[in-house]
């Protein structure tokens, strides 16, 4: 294993760790020697089902709830790496926009990252560290129906950039990853995806078709690919990179 990719002796926190990109990153860090993982997700049974070799602390909770960060995470103070990744998806045209749906999405996808950054910047001040946030290609596109999601993700990009400025003097780097489509369960709650799955005969065919249509490279990513790129951002290999946005989208935003 390249020394720069060796996470032994380190502790990492991951939110949204029970599924998709978060779970893949937990497995990637585990495979790269991390000593301890603190995994947060509101889906406690799925969090409990993750099978990992390193020491693991599992915390069930909602990232948009400040009590989780103040009370549930009060003892989580020794962190080297943090991935703020928990997120939900929703789509509706602005003209039909329901304020409760808007607020729910903003609470999870934006407040959750703000609260996580606040915690991470506070506890990492003494010895530095690396933070990654999961934004989205939606931050750079204007697809109809994505107002809440796109606005939240664009705000997440700017939050990460400001956090990079505020963390720099303490040796804390903050970067964002902006994936395009990734094959994870996040699609399964979307009505249009259910329709595509039905008409094309399988979930795999629906993911393949979306990737082919939407991206110059002709495919969506796997969660494992995105996890490795997050691993790079959290590792010493990206030592001079802070405030960056890594677009990992098969050319979707070109
Ligand atoms: P996923 O649904 O597989 O995983 C998301 C996880 O977050 C789930 O385990 C869920 O329980 C958890 N979660 C949701 N709300 C939470 C809350 N309030 N508190 C704590 N945990 C919560 O989806 P994913 O695709 O792995 O998504 C991870 C991140 O990647 C999200 O921020 C998403 O917006 C972003 N993203 C995904 C894609 C994609 O195509 N899958 C593309 C770009 C960005």
TrEMBL record:
<feature type="domain" description="Ketoreductase">
    <location>
        <begin position="10"/>
        <end position="180"/>
    </location>
</feature>
<dbReference type="Pfam" id="PF13561">
    <property type="entry name" value="adh_short_C2"/>
</dbReference>
<dbReference type="InterPro" id="IPR057326">
    <property type="entry name" value="KR_dom"/>
</dbReference>
<comment type="similarity">
    <text>Belongs to the short-chain dehydrogenases/reductases (SDR) family.</text>
</comment>
<protein>
    <submittedName>
        <fullName>Oxidoreductase</fullName>
    </submittedName>
</protein>
<dbReference type="InterPro" id="IPR002347">
    <property type="entry name" value="SDR_fam"/>
</dbReference>
<keyword id="KW-0520">NAD</keyword>
<keyword id="KW-0560">Oxidoreductase</keyword>
<dbReference type="InterPro" id="IPR036291">
    <property type="entry name" value="NAD(P)-bd_dom_sf"/>
</dbReference>
<dbReference type="InterPro" id="IPR020904">
    <property type="entry name" value="Sc_DH/Rdtase_CS"/>
</dbReference>
<dbReference type="GO" id="GO:0016491">
    <property type="term" value="F:oxidoreductase activity"/>
</dbReference>
